[in-house]
From TrEMBL:
Residues 1-34 are annotated as: Disordered. It is found in: Cytoplasm. Keywords: Cytoplasm. This is Putative gluconeogenesis factor. The keyword Cell wall biogenesis/degradation does not apply. Belongs to the gluconeogenesis factor family. PANTHER family: GLUCONEOGENESIS FACTOR-RELATED, UNCHARACTERIZED PROTEIN YVCK-RELATED.
Length: 353
């Protein structure tokens, strides 16, 4: 393209990625130069935290993202256009942006929300971009790959299913006036904020098709990372897509579960770390894990957590992964160091394939 550079380019002296259709991995090589193939499953800010850490240690990273969001900008676009909710996909792409000016500028741009008195209010730029490309290309995966190329994303983002999903939950005490009653609560946004106790969740439709590229990525991975994130609305839904669960059960990849730093108000209020494992096992009884990662400060009862992890075939790794400011958020560098240590200690003997 010729002509004067854009105002944004002139102001910030942004340098685009080295190649228009790819990027140069930052992490140091392993073995003969190959890096572990890592697939991260989740949604929302929990998955973003994991991706921000993982992109620091591997250049072969795929995010598989839940598509049950029905709130905010995503919910409005979903209702109006019948599309997949783009919000969690957008957040994953933003997390995969690099730390250079190009990556950080585009991360801010796609996360930017409009503030107005009109129909654009609270819509995120990235949501509109993703949906526009879906309509233009007619292919969810191709469109997301194109957005990733534009951003210079350090990895790939895939939806877990090609159809919009509805999350439903059985909740005890959803109505505070009837604390002992169990009701069916519909919608991810409602489930995430319920004042009651979530007993179980399921998806509608009950057997949604998985995106083939997501299944292939899990089967071909060296490591699969599940969590952190909203337990019932972002983590467990991946186990409710039959083809994706089958891939998790049959893959030769090692599986690490990353626990949250604190219970989530509403959804997992009062949950201990071991209870998170117990409800996960109830939704996927055949799923085995290799490693459970937790922050030591968030584990008051190490013995109980060890017992719960052992029932899933896993060992517990404790590491300082929280931000030093005391907030229940993961520190990207500390989380990256914890993942790197786990991959080295529990990975295959010899160089990465």
């Amino acid at each position: 393209m010729t002509g004067r550079p854009s105002r944004l380019r002139r102001m910030r002296r942004i340098t685009p990625p080295a190649t228009p259709l790819g990027w140069t991995p930052r992490p140091r090589p392993r073995g003969r130069g190959a890096q572990p193939k890592v697939v991260a499953l989740g949604g929302g800010m929990g998955l973003s935290a994991s991706l921000t850490a993982l992109r620091r240690i591997t250049g072969d990273l795929t995010a598989v993202v839940t598509v049950a969001d029905d709130g905010g900008s995503s919910g409005r676009l979903r209702d109006e256009l019948g599309v997949l909710p783009p919000g969690d996909l957008r957040k994953a792409l933003a997390a995969l942006c690099g730390d250079d000016d190009w990556g950080q500028t585009w991360s801010r741009v796609i996360q930017h929300r409009f503030h107005s008195r009109g129909d654009l209010h609270d819509h995120a730029v990235g949501n509109l971009l993703i949906v526009a490309l879906w309509e233009q290309l007619g292919d969810h995966v191709q469109a997301l790959d194109l957005v990733g190329t534009l951003l210079g994303a350090h990895g790939r983002v895939l939806p877990m299913s090609a159809v919009p999903l509805e999350l439903q939950a059985l909740v005890r005490g959803h109505d505070p006036a009837r604390p002992d009653d169990v009701d069916t609560v519909r919608g991810q946004a409602t489930v995430a904020l319920t004042p009651g106790e979530v007993q179980s969740v399921h998806l509608v439709p009950h057997d949604p098709p998985a995106v083939p590229e997501a299944v292939e990525a899990v089967l071909d991975a060296d490591w699969v990372v599940l969590g952190p994130g909203s337990w019932f609305s972002s983590v467990i839904p991946h186990l409710l897509v039959p083809e994706l669960l089958d891939a998790l059960l049959s893959t030769k990849a090692r599986r690490v579960l990353s626990l949250n730093l604190a219970p989530q108000p509403g959804e997992t209020e009062g949950f201990s770390p071991q209870r998170h494992l117990e409800v996960l096992a109830r939704h996927a009884p055949k799923l085995a894990l290799d490693v459970v990662l937790a922050d030591e400060a968030a584990v008051p009862d190490r013995i109980s957590l060890d017992d719960a992890a052992r029932r899933l075939g896993a060992t517990v790794e404790l590491a300082p992964v929280a931000r030093p400011d005391g907030s229940p958020r993961h520190d990207p560098e500390l989380l990256a160091a914890a993942y790197d240590r786990i991959f080295r200690m529990h990975g295959r003997i010899g160089p990465w394939r």
